[in-house]
Amino acid sequence: MLNLPFYLSSLFGLISAILIVYGIATNGSEIYTRHSLGYNINIIWGSVIFCASMFFLALGKYSARKKI
Predict the structure, then answer these.
(1) What DSSP assignment string belongs to the chain?
(2) Contact present, 27 and 46 (Cβ < 8 Å)
(3) CB count, 10 Å around CB of 3?
(4) What is the CA radius of gyration of the chain?
(5) pLDDT (average), residues 13-33
(6) What is the crossing angle of helices 4-25 and 41-65, to 10°?
(7) pLDDT for res 35
(8) Looking at residues 25-41, what average pLDDT do you find?
(9) Residue 6's pLDDT is what?
């Protein structure tokens, strides 16, 4: 059976992992002080996307158990 929330959460989890790793690798770079007011946008948005992926996964698990 095709479980779309699982695949969506996996895709968003992969994208968030890439963003977080890139944000950690470029932490302290000059571009953050000039363009984003000192915030590491990659880590912030990677964390937001990771939370969204966990939300999709939880919804998928809940809807898979619910009998209609």
Answers:
(1) ---HHHHHHHHHHHHHHHHHHHHHHTTT-HHHHHHSTT--HHHHHHHHHHHHHHHHHHHHHHHHH---
(2) no
(3) 13
(4) 16
(5) 91
(6) 160
(7) 83
(8) 85
(9) 85
